[in-house]
Amino acid sequence: MTERIDDETYDMAVVRGFALSALIWGIVGMAVGLVIALQLAWPELNVGPYFHFGRLRPVHTNVVIFGFTLGVVFAGSYYAVQRLCRARLPSDFLARLHLWLWNLTLVAAGVTLVLGHTTSKEYAELEWPLDIAVVVMWVIYGVNFFGTIARRRERGLYASLWFFGATVLTIAMLYIFNNLERPVSFLKSYSIYAGMHDANIQWWYGHNAVGFVLTTPILGLMYYFLPRQAERPIYSHRLSIVHFWSLIFVYIWAGPHHLLFSPLPDWTQSLGTAFSIMLLLPSWGGMLNGLLTLRGAWHRVGTDPILKMFVVGLTFYGMSTFEGPMMSLKTVNALSHFTNWTIAHVHAGALGWVALTCFATLYYLVPRLWHTTLWSVRLAETHFWVATLGIVLYVTPMWISGVTQGLMWRAVNPDGSLTYTFADSVAAIHVYDVIRAGGGAIFLSGAVLMFWNVIQTIRQGSSEVPEAEPARGASAPAGGH
Amino acid sequence: MAFERHRKLEANAILLFTLTMLTVTVGGLVLLIPPHFLAGTIEPIAGLTPYSPLELEGRDIYIREGCNVCHSQEVRPFKSETDRYGRYSLAGEGVYDRPFLWGSRRTGPDLARVGGKYPASWHWLHFHNPRDIEPRSNMPAFAFLAERELDLSETSRKLEVLRSLGHPYTDADIAGAEASARAQAASIAAALRAAGVALSPVEERSETIAVIAYLETLGRAVRAEAAQTVQLGGGAQ
């Protein structure tokens, strides 16, 4: 099987743009994450008014989710949809517009958030003019994505495209309805929902931002790039069908698990818990379909950092999608909610599953996009181990910290009075905050290694197809240094 | 066999993505629509009033600084929480809360019942540097709020927008928003002075004053209701 990648057949320039931007946003977002981790450990590092935890935390979440992750999703989905449909994106102009509008919106998001313009709703903090920019950007993405499908010269749509398509449609619905607000001025608005209703719709959105930004499109990447890299077809088409439909149906119902024991009606909370437990099955369906694709290729995992990242990423996916349903049980949630356990859970998924899969995708894409081989496979291998160590050093102390908080908050003396003050629990977790910052720093340093590797790869390659180069094989990580 | 029929679906993009859209819509319809109509979902708290202009500005500063990132406002119905914070949160408390501020993480303690717990002077010192009051606190210092004069240029407009969303502000409330905010700020400044806090002219009209006014509202209606219940001889819940 040979494939020829050139800009005459497909629009690869836009993929290069998204891949590079995503990597830069990733480093920015992770660096802000490190800063706020240090601020939690040493509050003197907060610099008011613009650079304190309350304003920087949304910068971290927005940049890593909508900058890094979505950037890789845009790059990977544009790459995959053109090849799977054997059709070029419908418009080079719209593709370029998407790239620039997305980058500019992210810059504007960072600036406005630091300046304190926020709606406060998690992962939906941007004020109304930026919401409009996001919706326009997203519609352009949809036109490009579905436009390519409309022009396809391949009859059937492969599973990756179902996942990307579900992402485009669902995020549009979630984002618009959660962000309905009435403007007061250019950068201030009030939600059209109040109190409990606002909480209800926010976590319908918030949980499904996890579902449809950090899960379905990442599965879309996995479904395309893992089989490519492993040179094996996906393990089971039937499993893809079953777990796709059940995943997208069930995910939407699980939002209320963020609001257990809150004033939300009991029946809503119970539905949230029930569907969260059900979510285990379609999630593991995706994990197993990925891991079993490696049947017969496991010997290659030892020497291939891209496959290693996919494998460990899928393993973390399985782990966090087991942990999530457990945390949705009311008895567990009573302890875990409001604690660092949630932070551990989120980062096991975000660093373990999402970031490793995104790194693997970028390592796959960059040499192909610049018509060369990866500058250093060994450095990518180092990145894998550094990242894994960073995740372990991040997640483990946050687990211990979360359980510590939960237990201290509920501890009572024999006479029934509370054993600890809140400040006692703050002091008790300081050491874990310090270790976590170390884990985050290590993870970030891995991303910096990757950046260096990518820059060197680009320097030795070219965006033009070399004259002498015959159509290159799709085979994987061609050796470098 | 069903899987063979799915092949046809995979070749029909319009049908495939229409079904996808329908599939992801069901859960939201069931979870989000009925609470707006089911009786008993929101019982308004007796005595709950909309935020005063100063309290509203304070709430917006609370949002601007991301206080909700570290402080929840949602007391759960556990003895350990009601002992620590006060009565558990009720749906009817939030009808004037746009957006809701329940939060998702307690880096600091819950604030749903913080109103009335501390004198204004405590908050003043605490905002200046939380570690002067609690050495183990990891809250950022918000000393800069005291150096910024409260901007009231949009306050009337804010009340108007909220009225359009159903908050019961009168024309007089809207017209007098700025004056009302100044008067309430002056009374808080007076309380601070009485407690021995020296205030500069900027400080007595500062953003800190507005945030203190907002924090005082938290749990106010629930406290008032509880006091009334006790007066009437009802058992405390």
Describe the overall structure.
The complex is a heterodimer of chains A (481) and B (237). Chain A contains 17 helices and two strands. Chain A has 481 residues and is mainly alpha-helical. Chain A has a single domain (13-460), classed as Cytochrome c oxidase-like, subunit I domain (Cytochrome C Oxidase, Chain A). In chain A, strands 1-2 form a two-stranded antiparallel sheet. Chain A is globular and about 80 Å long. The relative contact order of chain A is 0.10. Residues 470-481 of chain A have low confidence and may be disordered. With 237 residues, chain B is mostly helical. Chain B has two domains: 2-36; 53-231, Cytochrome Bc1 Complex, Chain D, domain 2 (Orthogonal Bundle). Chain B contains eleven helices and no strands. Chain B has helices spanning 2-11, 13-32, 53-64, 79-84, 120-128, 130-133, 155-164, 171-175, 177-194, 207-217, 220-231. In chain B, helix 3 crosses helix 10 (207-217) and helix 9 packs across helix 10. Chain B is elongated, with a radius of gyration of 23 Å.
